Amino acid sequence: MIAGSGRQQGDTARIFGTMKVLMVCLGNICRSPLAHGILEQHAAEKGLDWEVDSAGTGSWHIGNPPDPRSVAVAAKHGLDISQQRARQVHWPDLEAFDLVFAMDQSNYQDLMTMAQSDGEREKIRLIRDLEGSVKGMSVPDPYWDDDGFEQVYAMLDKACSILVDQHAT
Description:
Elements: H1 9-15, E1 18-25, H2 31-45, E2 49-56, H3 68-76, H4 91-96, E3 99-102, H5 105-114, H6 118-123, E4 124-126, H7 148-167
Helix pairs in contact: 2-7
């Protein structure tokens, strides 16, 4: 809480137009880098001063660039995510970010287990819950399906557009 305000710290960020958003998937090479790039683009288009990052619950790909198929689908839509590097999510991220979006139920459960307070747990959401009509649905992991990257891009683009529209003034 912010002393005497009755607001959570994340509320202050939204009032002043800044927001820190973390996108999380398993390895931080397919879905979350796409979500990261898409949300950055949507926020910039609306003139929002947001900090966006991505991470994975697993450590397998730390330091690696996004999967070439994610880079290709992003480029097809005018985004360059090639400079991103995979990292693993850690507890301080739950403190530092205003919103943390999990790509699937497994990532969501891992994040909820990591959270150390109700305030941190309240920040964690499934990204597709933004759509309303698909609550509880996951963004499928396209790692094993070359044809799944375009579908994943479309899901993430829709969710990120909704998020930005909810916060744009």
